[in-house]
Amino acid sequence: MLEASNNNELPPIPAKRYFTIGEVSELCGVKPHVLRYWEQEFSQLKPVKRRGNRRYYQRHDVLLIRDIRSLLYEQGFTIGGARQRLDNVSKPEASGVVRKHIIQEILTELKELRLLLT
């Protein structure tokens, strides 16, 4: 999505399909109540809700949360500015940026796997 500058300090995202709000909180360094607030502020962030209104986030949600965190905490954007920036990134002309970020994430995970296997 956006720059992965300080996302390197965050733990790698495990190869799972769904994550609970507690897991996402740990993976992104953000408290659960902040995640619930961001759901209201950022229309792109829509975790799956199941039985008992429990939230289940997918990998793309975790990446989006890391991007939001970076915009707000590291780059100094306001909520409105971050929302506008994400709207611009999600447009078709920015798909190259999105692909590049996903490829970088995959390469990082592959390197970590290679280290584990050697």
Brief sketch in words of this structure:
With 118 residues, the protein is mostly helical. It has helices spanning 21-28, 32-41, 59-74, 79-89, 95-117; strands at 48-50, 54-56. A two-stranded antiparallel sheet has the order 1-2.
Blueprint (SSEs and pairs):
Blueprint: H1 21-28, H2 32-41, E1 48-50, E2 54-56, H3 59-74, H4 79-89, H5 95-117
Antiparallel strand pairs: 1-2
Strand content is: 5-15%
Segments where pLDDT lies below 50 for 5+ residues? 1-6
User: Which architecture does the CATH hierarchy give at level 2?
Assistant: Orthogonal Bundle
* Whole-number mean pLDDT: 85
Report how far the terminal alpha carbons are from each other: 31 Å
Q: Supply the number of helical segments.
A: 5
Strand order of the largest sheet: 1-2
Annotated CATH topology: Multidrug-efflux Transporter Regulator, Chain: A, Domain 2
Helix vs. strand class: mainly alpha
Q: Bin the helical content.
A: 55-70%
CATH hierarchy class name: Mainly Alpha
